[in-house]
Prior knowledge:
Blueprint: E1 2-4, H1 12-19, H2 26-47, E2 60-65, E3 70-75, H3 82-90, H4 97-104, H5 110-115, E4 126-134, E5 143-147, E6 152-157, E7 164-171, H6 181-191, E8 199-208, E9 211-220, H7 237-247, E10 256-262, E11 268-274, E12 288-292, E13 295-298, E14 313-317, H8 327-332, H9 334-357, H10 359-364, H11 366-379, H12 381-387, E15 392-394, E16 400-402, H13 403-410, E17 421-426, H14 433-441, E18 446-448, H15 454-464, E19 468-472, H16 478-481, H17 494-505, E20 514-520, E21 529-533, H18 535-544, H19 551-555, E22 559-565, H20 569-607, H21 617-647, H22 649-661, H23 667-681
Parallel strand pairs: 2-8, 12-14, 17-18, 17-19, 20-22
Antiparallel strand pairs: 1-6, 2-3, 3-7, 4-5, 4-7, 5-6, 8-9, 10-11, 11-14, 12-13, 15-16, 21-22
Helix pairs in contact: 9-12, 11-12, 17-21, 20-21, 22-23
GO molecular function: ATP binding; ATP hydrolysis activity; ATP-dependent protein folding chaperone; unfolded protein binding
Keywords: ATP-binding, Chaperone, Coiled coil, Cytoplasm, Nucleotide-binding, Stress response
Pfam families: HATPase_c_3 (PF13589), HSP90 (PF00183)
Amino acid sequence: xxxxxxxxxxxxxxxxxxxxxxxxxxxxxxxxxxxxxxxxxxxxxxxxxxxxxxxxxxxxxxxxxxxxxxxxxxxxxxxxxxxxxxxxxxxxxxxxxxxxxxxxxxxxxxxxxxxxxxxxxxxxxxxxxxxxxxxxxxxxxxxxxxxxxxxxxxxxxxxxxxxxxxxxxxxxxxxxxxxxxxxxxxxxxxxxxxxxxxxxxxxxxxxxxxxxxxxxxxxxxxxxxxxxxxxxxxxxxxxxxxxxxxxxxxxxxxxxxxxxxxxxxxxxxxxxxxxxxxxxxxxxxxxxxxxxxxxxxxxxxxxxxxxxxxxxxxxxxxxxxxxxxxxxxxxxxxxxxxxxxxxxxxxxxxxxxxxxxxxxxxxxxxxxxxxxxxxxxxxxxxxxxxxxxxxxxxxxxxxxxxxxxxxxxxxxxxxxxxxxxxxxxxxxxxxxxxxxxxxxxxxxxxxxxxxxxxxxxxxxxxxxxxxxxxxxxxxxxxxxxxxxxxxxxxxxxxxxxxxxxxxxxxxxxxxxxxxxxxxxxxxxxxxxxxxxxxxxxxxxxxxxxxxxxxxxxxxxxxxxxxxxxxxxxxxxxxxxxxxxxxxxxxxxxxxxxxxxxxxxxxxxxxxxxxxxxxxxxxxxxxxxxxxxxxxxxxxxxxxxxxxxxxxxxxxxxxxxxxxxxxxxxxxxxxxxxxxxxxxxxx
Length: 682
């Protein structure tokens, strides 16, 4: 018998071959899945008494014949009669072939989910496909259907003893890779690892001599009852452990898991594992595997599940997920969106449950969980709302607090004069040790927020709570981290600051950022000098490392404040040395500057009420001469102060000590410091 496949358009097969699936290797999943369906259908018929044969030994066989250039997938399932072959294969999609082809040719990925064209994926890799099948129905005769990829086919009766179907694919020249045993093993392991009917491919191998050889035992590639298909009550911790390592043989132990088992308002099963996520944002692609009735759909779940959940590992399975390899199609599917939202809720509920059941254990695992939870809070509003119940803040003493607990701890002592609650934090305990200790000496508590997402989280929390703010301990001296009432400590005038600033500005290192010198009376017991970093600029630079569009901040040099403690005896000694060394010279220069400024002021009075063109050129020239002289005198004064600073060992030592406390003294500068320290000790 010869005939034409029930579609009038000549461009069906080119579309199938080129556009039906985004990955050509999907053909094996489709053909094996069809074979599994045929086996399952026969079991269903037997269970209702419509078939009396043996269904206890249902299997699917995948056979490779490299010499003949064929891949054969066989099953002992329901089989087809000649009429059924005509209905299910020759009449593609039963009816309306032209209509559906026209409708979906621009979005061919959508064909699969709607029209069940899995069988036709075989033509993506085949020059010819043969179907040899025998129906379970009594008296049925076996038929052989053959097609070379054109709308024409042949069908004839053949001899076949067993009920079931063989699909024989004659692989085309462009797809010879699929005739390699390793390639087929790879695809079966990827797509068919958990199908509910045994899938056999070749024989198991054992090592003999210097190579692997076949044994007599069939090689079953799949686990027909994976852990997620079983009831949680029937599983032990060991079962979850073993299944995790079945999925990820080389992975570290997970922290814990969530077993999903939902039947309303949609069907969803699965097991999600929480891996250990360290203080780097790891690339976590291909960790969650998506299945539909144990048939692999995809392992690229970005955009299908919320972004933060892609950090988890495990399996999700739902018959409501269309069996389609187009991720864009999956992302727009309404069921997928509902499932995604539900998983977020279940994950948050499970974390809250673990926190309440065993807080001690939760706290021990917090450092490994923190990155995941913070990422979720930053990217998913609903998760943020739920996560506040179990999100933990850890301080420098290693204690953990919920958001509410920590507010109660600090609100009495860490509320500033504007009634804002100030959360102090550090992101490196060793590097910021002196700042942490200075804050603690004032009775403040300091949080540890060392992971790379902390800056983003702080910004989010400040947006949510305008009455709270976060300040890193090295953003200012301890006395000014949480401003209380205005103090009455000694202050320098602007003129005094301008005279002292060059002494220390000359010493700060070049190439390590911009240093602004400031002066505060911190008392005799505080350090003589402290280096702080502006909170806003530092936070913007931190964010620029992780957030596109903020590179302008990342390109800016670091900005530091060198705070000179004018209340410290050693600083007073430097200032006394400066006076002893330069007082006479500076007084003379300052007097000259004063004289020039007085003359300039007198000229300015003469110009009052006059337009520029009414001022004689002689006066203009005199004004410029005075400006140039004042500038020259100020430069001379600055030059002498800088020279004094560079030559004063004590001033250099104090600046280097401040740099050393901030882990900013290295290389030749550190070597100079050590040599100078030895000289000063002698």
